[in-house]
Design a protein that fits this description.
Length: 105
């Protein structure tokens, strides 16, 4: 997912050659992320920063939705934090928090 997200602005993000440099860096992090949650988290944080830059420049990720880059910049760090924690199972977390009648006593 993050490898594709890294190339999201290539269709006209307005940053010239830096679009390709950014895509190469995120692609490298995505590749390293095959063995490391940390690299996936870093890639999402890089994408967050890129979203902020694009939003400030007025080049949204979705051309007809002006706030799309800002929305992405809000969501991406949440994914990054989850990855930096090692991608823990959300299902297991919810199951452990649910109280059963046996444990409520």
């Amino acid at each position: 997912m993050v490898g594709g997200a890294g190339a999201a602005y290539l269709s006209g993000g307005g940053m010239g050659i830096w679009e390709f440099v950014f895509t190469a860096v995120v692609t490298y992090c995505a590749f390293r992320g095959l063995d490391s949650w940390t690299f996936i988290g870093i890639a999402w944080l890089l994408h967050t920063a890129w979203d902020v830059v694009q939003h400030l420049q007025g080049n949204p990720i979705i051309p007809f939705a002006p706030g799309s880059s800002l929305g992405c910049a809000i969501c991406d760090p949440v994914i990054a934090l989850w990855c930096l924690r090692g991608g823990p199972s959300l299902v297991d977390h919810l199951r452990s928090r649910r109280r059963t009648p046996e444990t409520a006593v």
